[in-house]
Amino acid sequence: MQRSAATGRHYMVGGGIAALSAAALLVRDGGVPGDRITILEHHGTAGGSLDGSGEAETGYLTRGGRMFEPNFVCTLDLLSAIPAPDDPAVSVRDDILAFNRLVPGRAECRIVRDGQKAEDRYRLGLGPEEIVALNRLLLTPEGRLDGRRIEDWFAPEFFGSNFWIMWSTMFSFQPWHSVAEMRRYMRRFLHLFPGLARIEGILRTRYNQYDSIVAPILVWLLKQGVNLRTGSSVADLTIEGDQNSRRVTQLHLATGGTIDVAPEDRVYLTLGSMTDATVTGDRDTPPPSEDGQSPGFDLWRRLAARNEGLGRPEVFAGHSDRTSWTSFTVTLNSPAFITFMEDFSSNRTGTGGLVTFADSAWLMSIVMFHQPHFREQPANRPVFWGYGLRGDRPGDVIAKPMAQATGEEIREELAHQLRLQADQRAEFFDGAQIIPCRMPVITSQFMPRQPGDRPPVIPRGAENFAVIGQFCEIPRDCVFTVEYSVRSAWMAVHGLTGEVAPPPPVVRSDRDPRALLRAAKVLLTG
Fold it and tell me: Are strands 433-439 and 10-13 parallel, antiparallel or unpaired?
């Protein structure tokens, strides 16, 4: 008989948004005292891939933000209980919604060609064959797409369309990624098709996602007495039993210590991380060629090698030529470039979104954030972010892959894409701090997969442990989103305690006749 959730201890292995969400749900909905929850995080701070760090003098860093939209019902429900950082009387959810009413997004410069806003930037550029292929993909059962790549489904001409440029840079898809995942995205976000060319319908946070989401959750959890142990890495687990009945009995720390797991305790495992192995450079130094530490995947490999039904991490990790890209965060020394980009893009800062340089060999994109992007950021040090989806190739003026470029070389490549003159380059970027960041497995969750490659949230026979985060299997929902992580946490808490209601269902835009008609109109006229 399952014991009450409040009688045992709850251990979060990993401190990303999934683990923080599980802890918050246990307290809010499960009646678990905070002091019975322990979060064990390898790094020096929690938050996982939703990060934001640095300072004005040395440069700010954000590795990248995840897409956010109104149908993320699990995330918005969770954030409704968390006080906002600037006004504790308002929830984080209500602060996000209020901010988006104040600063609505509508990109007027989604695609740039030859240093100018592309004349066809509002058109998808799809021909009859591409439209048929997209519709056929929407209607094909996912089970028939196992292991197949996007490039197996579409003709080569498709990958030169505006639709693909917008789609791939917005969601970070590559032609060799999973066509099953692309189908999930299309069905999940069908309601966003009318605003695809202008990135309408997307929610933005007031600051970076660490300051806007993670930090408030952490403050709330710590007030509840939750024990956060940073710099505390779980290197292995003891799992006793088999797929008929099995339990975690010990956590083995990288320092050599162990934590005994009692029969009434529960364990929530974040296996793998999209930002594992990340390395950074600076203005004068490229990121190291050697990958950084990979604690999430290392733990997954150890567990999967000894325990059936815990997935196949090798499907996702170990293919950095297929799963890597490089981002860069720029801390400017004056607002001059911000003013230039407002004139260039016809968007007030923070109201646009990705500006993609279609001619760029690196397929570079930048985002001009609403300022300040960091809570303590000085007004005279604005920040913007960019990345190269095809940074594996030599650049147009920097004859090397983006991953081997210094911050200064990335700035040169950007200046070329904007056709900036020498005096403009000096005015805009002198004194700027530019931090390039190479992420070897950032899109690993998109790799083509088969059933069983991702473990279920509650693996077969698991009595006291669950798998959460980006590398578990959740039907119909889409990885590379905050919602996927929060939903996995909710499913885990529900499944392990039986005392928390199941999460709200995935919103099915593909079953909404109005959304279907609007999407069909966009595809046929785009």
Answer: unpaired
Percent of the chain that is helix, strand, coil (3-state, to 5)? 35, 20, 45
φ/ψ region of 277 (left if φ > 0, alpha if ψ in -120 to 50, else beta) reads: left
Q: Which CATH number does 325-439 carry? A: 3.30.9.80
- Neighbour-count burial of 138, counting CB atoms closer than 10 A to its CB (0-12 exposed, 13-18 middle, 19+ buried): middle
Cα first-last separation, the chain: 58
CB contact set of 60 (below 8 Å; sequence gap of 6+): 52, 53, 54, 329, 331, 373, 374, 377, 383, 433, 435
User: CA–CA separation, 301 vs 236, rounded Å?
Assistant: 10
Contact 199, 125 (CB under 8 A): no
Q: Which residues make up the CATH 3.50.50.60 domain(s) of the chain?
A: 5-53+70-98+206-274+450-497
**CB distance 392 to 323 below 8 Å:** no
Q: Provide CATH code, domain 5-53+70-98+206-274+450-497.
A: 3.50.50.60
Domain with CATH 3.30.9.80 in the chain: 325-439
Q: At 40, phi and psi to the nearest 5? A: -110, 110
pLDDT tens, residue by residue, 37-67? 999 999 999 999 998 999 999 999 998 777 7
Tell me whether strands 53-55 and 37-40 are parallel, antiparallel or unpaired. unpaired
Dig out the tokens for 414 from the structure: 């950007």
CB 90 within 8 A of CB 84: yes
How does pLDDT run across 196-244, given as a tens digit for each residue? Answer: 999 999 999 999 999 999 999 999 999 999 999 999 999 999 999 999 9
Separation of alpha carbons 279 and 292, rounded Å: 6
Q: In 84-154, which ranges are E strands?
A: 111-113, 116-117
DSSP H/E element including 437:
strand 433-439
pTM (2 d.p.): 0.96
